[in-house]
Amino acid sequence: MDEKEGISIFQELLKDKSFITKDFYIEPEQEDKKSEDFNYVPEKERANKVVVEEPVRGLVDALPSVENTVLGLLFSAGWCSPCREFVPLLRDLYEELQMKRCPFQIVFISFDKTEEKMKEYFMDHHGEWLAIPFNDKALREAFRSTYDVNSLPKLIVVKDTGEVITKTGRKEVQDRGFIGYRNWRLVANLKDGGKLHSSSIIKSERTLDPKDSDA
Fold first, then answer.
1. Domains along the chain?
2. Within its chain, how far is the Cα of 48 from the centroid?
């Protein structure tokens, strides 16, 4: 896959798409009864009231989320015991890199059988990184087929264009840790040293587009 192909692949795969953060699965606090009573609007007035579409918590635009950074594509599932062994190692490296303000992001592509299983695995075992929404089955399958993933766990490290840096990310994390990351970063050739995707960026919100769902 050359640079031109990489650009076209990510632009095609991620155009108008969204990733989620863990905030997506955190239930908003329920408003108390007093607040509801205070804000009560009669039915006749509600009919004429303009409805403002609220942003969806934990939903972020995909392309800006992976811009100018080293990106790890994590293909994994909670039912896979080697996955459960590997993810804590990856989480430790991710947290180390975040502490050192190194440009690195991860996108989790779930192979779990239900959204409830994905939610449990993502919330309880993963780091504060991104995931493809479970209901966007088409995007998850597009990533699987594009990167020819046939076994789990799989960590494929790519440039922000989608061009592959290494398909042996799992082994490199296990054997080399931070040194492995330094090599990925050199190959990625990031602009101005790369972009740190801070929590303020990752926790931004966007309005849910029905096209983001796999109907």
1. 61-197 (3.40.30.10)
2. 39
* Residue matched to tokens 């592959």: 164
Q: Which of 77, 155, 162, 160 is CA-nearest to residue 117?
A: 77
Work out the number of other CB atoms within 10 angstroms of the CB of residue 200. 7
User: Can you give the pTM of this predicted structure?
Assistant: 0.79
Start-to-end CA span in the chain (Å): 31
**Dihedrals φ, ψ of 180, to 5°?**
-60, -45
Q: What are phi and psi of 79, to 5 degrees?
A: -80, -10
Q: Which residue, 125, 49, 117, 57, is CA-closest to 86?
A: 125
Residue 198: C-alpha distances to residues 12, 96, 102, 170, 203 (Å): 25, 14, 10, 24, 9
Residue 123 reports pLDDT greater than 50 = yes
